Amino acid sequence: MGSGHGKTAARGYNGQLSRAGARMRPGFEGGQMPLHRRLPKRGFTNIFRKEYLAINLEKLAGFESGAKVDPEILKSQGIIKNVRDGLKILGVGELQHALHVRAHKFSKSAAEKIQKAGGTIEVIA
Q1: How many domains does the chain have?
Q2: Looking at residue 102, which CATH number applies to its domain?
Q3: Given 40, 48, 75, 82, which residue has the most CB atoms within 10 angstroms?
């Protein structure tokens, strides 16, 4: 009794929490309908969705004129980590010199800027 936790060991008297091994699963609300079951379900997950890794033109400005740029080269340079379902080039930034760019998708503005700079684009299937 000297510890101050004698007799019931600070568990109170009878009831669910006074028993040995008493623990409830996460989300248990004492028999009340749990919150995750009270809330409605919304939407769905499209299992066929493609997730493209987007990269802007300003990241390609560091390559020298006439260079070939594709996902493997970008990965080896450390500009990207992994290509999910493909690589998409976006048109943010300017390109001062011609590059041969290979990617799975291009935005309209990116394609225009690459071709205006004298470069070429190639869509990877």
Answers
A1: 1
A2: 3.100.10.10
A3: 75
Nearest to 103 by CA among 76, 122, 85: 122
Distance between CA atoms of 122 and 102, rounded to whole angstroms?
5
Helical segments of the chain, H only:
35-38, 71-77, 108-116
Dump pLDDT digits (tens) for 99-113. 999 999 999 999 999
Which residues fall within 8 angstroms of residue 122, CB to CB, at 6 or more apart? Answer: 100, 101, 102, 103
Q: What is the side-by-side order of every strand in the sheet holding 87-90?
A: 53-56, 87-90, 105-106
Q: Would you call 68 helix, strand, or coil by DSSP?
A: strand
Please report whether residue 99 resides in a domain: yes
**Distance, CA of 73 to CA of 7 (rounded, Å):** 71
Domain presence at residue 48: no
pTM confidence score:
0.67
- Structural domain containing residue 67: 53-123
Q: What are the tokens at 53?
A: 């890794």
